[in-house]
Specification:
Elements: E1 8-13, E2 18-25, E3 29-37, H1 39-43, H2 50-72, E4 81-87, H3 91-108, E5 112-116, H4 117-123, E6 128-129, E7 142-147, E8 152-159, E9 162-168, H5 174-184, H6 191-199, H7 223-238, H8 245-270, E10 275-279, H9 286-294, E11 299-301, H10 313-325
Parallel strand pairs: 1-4, 3-6, 4-5, 7-10, 10-11
Antiparallel strand pairs: 1-2, 2-3, 7-8, 8-9
Length: 342
C-alpha cells in the first residue's frame, strides 16, 4: 500500500463477551476506546454463557458507542467508515455488533468494513495512543503468533492483509487450555490470569508435562498437556496429598509458554522473518511476554496490555487497512461465525 488515505474509522467489536467501540485515525492513532466487560457476569458460570452474552451486548452497544464519541470529542459525521467484527465468534453476539454497524453505516451513508477478529488482533500491534510518541511500524515479513482462548496459530505476514497460515491448533487453543487447567486446580475463571498469579509463588520445574509430537512443526496441540495435568491432579488426590496448586500452575504455564515460544522462533528462522508479532488474549501473559522480550534474535511486537484482550481499537486499525485497500463490503454483509484467515 504505497499511498494510504487519511481516514477516521469507528469500529464495533462484539464477538464474545466484551462490547467495545473505538475510533482510530489513519490506522494507528487511537483517539478513543471503550470496553464494557461481562467478565463478572460470566464468572459465576465458569465460562461464557452465549445467550447471556448476546443479551448484554444489546444493553451495552449504544451506550458504548456514545461514550466513545464523547471521549474522542468527535461526532458520527466526522467518521469516514464504520468497521465491525464479522467473525469468528459467537453468532448471537456478532449479530448485535453487526446490526449496530449496519445501521450506522446506512444512516450516515458510510462504507461498512467487515473485519476478521483474528486479523484485528494482529493489527493491535500497529496502534499507539494519539498524542504520544509514534513507535516504528512492524516490518514485513512478520511471523505472527495469534494466541487466545479460541485460537492458536502461526501466520507469515508478507504485507498488509497478506497472510499464510503455517499451522494452527489441532484441538484446544492455548487460552482454552489455561481455562480448563485453572478449573482443574480450583482457580477462578478466567483461568489465564488466575494461573499466572498462582504460578508466581510456584516451582516451574517440579512437574514435567507432556508435549505433543506433531507432523507439522508449526501446529499446536494442548489437549495432551491439559490431560497430563488432569492425571497428575488425580494421582495427587488419590494419594491424599494436598494439591500444590502454585507448583502445578507454574509447571503448566512454563510448558505452554515454552511450546509457544519455541515454535514461533523456529518458524521465524525458517521463513526468514524480520520481526515477530505476538497478539491475542494470551499475549498478556507475563511469562510469555518475558520469553519473547528476553531473546535478542528478533525484534518482537506485542500490544499494550489493554489491547491484548478483545477491543474495538484493533478492529478499527484492521478496518482502516481494509478500507484503504478497497475491501469494503455491501450492506448485505452477514456474520461469519467460522470465518478465519486464509
Amino acid at each position: 500500500m504505497s499511498s494510504l488515505p487519511n481516514a477516521r474509522i469507528l469500529a464495533i467489536e462484539s464477538s464474545c463477551d466484551e462490547t467495545a467501540c473505538a475510533v482510530i485515525e489513519n490506522g494507528r492513532a487511537l483517539l478513543a476506546s471503550t470496553v464494557a466487560s461481562q467478565m463478572d457476569i460470566h464468572a459465576r458460570y465458569g465460562g461464557v454463557f452465549p445467550e447471556v452474552a448476546s443479551r448484554q451486548h444489546v444493553l451495552s452497544v449504544i451506550p458504548v458507542v456514545q461514550q466513545t464519541l464523547a471521549k474522542s470529542n468527535l461526532s458520527l459525521n466526522d467518521m469516514d467508515a464504520i468497521a465491525v467484527t464479522r467473525g469468528p465468534g459467537l453468532a448471537g453476539s456478532l449479530v448485535v455488533g453487526m446490526n449496530m454497524a449496519k445501521g450506522l453505516a446506512l444512516a450516515l451513508g458510510l462504507p461498512l468494513v467487515g473485519v476478521n477478529h483474528l486479523e484485528g488482533h494482529i493489527y493491535s500491534a500497529w496502534i499507539h495512543t494519539a498524542g504520544e510518541a509514534i513507535p516504528p511500524e512492524p516490518q514485513f515479513p512478520l511471523m505472527a503468533l495469534l494466541v487466545s482462548g479460541g485460537h492458536t496459530e502461526l501466520n507469515l505476514m508478507t504485507d498488509h492483509l497478506t497472510y499464510k497460515r503455517l499451522g494452527s491448533t489441532l484441538d484446544d487453543a492455548a487460552g482454552e487450555a489455561f481455562d480448563k487447567v485453572g478449573r482443574l486446580l480450583g482457580l477462578p475463571f478466567p483461568g489465564g490470569p488466575a494461573i499466572q498469579k498462582a504460578a508466581e509463588s510456584g516451582e516451574s520445574t517440579r512437574f514435567k508435562f507432556t508435549r505433543a509430537k506433531l507432523d507439522n512443526p508449526y501446529a499446536f496441540s494442548f489437549s495432551g498437556l491439559k490431560t497430563a495435568v488432569l492425571y497428575e491432579v488425580n494421582a495427587l488426590k488419590k494419594a491424599g496429598v494436598e494439591l500444590p496448586v502454585a507448583d502445578l500452575a507454574a509447571s503448566f504455564q512454563a510448558t505452554a509458554v515454552d511450546i509457544l515460544f519455541n515454535k514461533t522462533m523456529q518458524a521465524a528462522r525458517d521463513f526468514k522473518a524480520k520481526e515477530i508479532l505476538v497478539a491475542g488474549g494470551v499475549s498478556a501473559n507475563k511469562a510469555l511476554r518475558t520469553a519473547f522480550q528476553s531473546q535478542t534474535e528478533f525484534k518482537v511486537n506485542i500490544p499494550a496490555f489493554s489491547l491484548c484482550t478483545d477491543n474495538a481499537a484493533m478492529i478499527a486499525a484492521a478496518g482502516y487497512y481494509c478500507y484503504a485497500s478497497g475491501h469494503v463490503s455491501t450492506m448485505d454483509m452477514d456474520v461469519q461465525p467460522t470465518w478465519a484467515l486464509s
